[in-house]
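Dear Dr. H.,

I hope your travels went smoothly. While you were away I took the liberty of generating a structure for the chain from your last submission, since the lab meeting agenda had it listed for discussion. I wanted you to have the full record in hand beforehand rather than looking at slides cold. The sequence, exactly as received, is reproduced here:
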Amino acid sequence: MDLFRVRQFPDSVESRPVPMSVTEPASLNKPRSKSFYFWLMAPAILVLAFISIYPFFWMIYMSLHDVDIGHVEWNNFANFIKLPSDTRFLMGWVLLAQYSAMCLTLQIVIGVFLALALNGTRLEKILVTTLLMPMMMAPLVAGMVWYFLYNGTFGWYHWLLQSLGILGPKSILASSNTAMIGLVLVDVWQWTPLITLITLAGLKRVPQDQLEANMVDGASPFRNFVSVTLPNLYPVLLIAIMLRFMDNFRFIDSILVLTGGGPGNATKILPVYLFEVSFKFFKLGRGAAIALILLVVTIILGKLLVRVFDRQQPSKV
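The corresponding predicted structure, in token form, is as follows:
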């Protein structure tokens, strides 16, 4: 439709284009009020409140009581007072810090290296899909798979490590010196693809003009990575670190299948100790106190990571 139409005036020889106003058709649907969207989300909000908020307050209630089957008694904060003198509780924090540090370090290094190697290649989509397969596996199933691979009798990985002279006759999970390494390898195998996927998404946002300008100036590929690529990946890597950090504080499925916290207490990180106290010895009040402290520490560390992430954001003009 033309925006201008020529209108002929009988008293004038000249013809002038007269603009025609373009009007949108009137809408038959009235604009929705904010209350409409609230009531639309109300069922989901109620379900989330029931499955998250209610258990949270119930956990606080149990942490302040001695909870037994059919019996609840106030204990004057005894569950929290006894924790600083619990050596297994303190050692659980130490083992959890070691486990998380080793997992995060290896996953970030390997994940970034794989992302750089796959970025822009012809088979990128096929290789990324293949790498994501371990991540799609349930942690319990992954633990069972690696349990058989580590088996000292017929495990293929045990035979390989023993042939290379790395292991003796014992399985990697049977020694207190190597059991934690075996758990770390399982976590790295399963969740490094997540770091690779997040890093690949960040690499697509790296400005190519800066990379080309540095190459013209004679910068080496390593220098280009340090000065251009890594600063652009920094926010993305922080998100990946926060996700994996929180997962390491929660997921114990593969650990329970592989070692159950053993041999001895060599791999009894704090979440495993929490599971043992709550569901093996049924000290639900003590377990709730441990869970509450673990939750508070996780939130505090997550807030610190978010604050670091906010400081790295470019200031708005």
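Two observations you may find useful: The chain has one domain: 84-311. Residues 84-311 form a domain with the MetI-like fold fold (CATH 1.10.3720.10).

With kind regards,
E. W.
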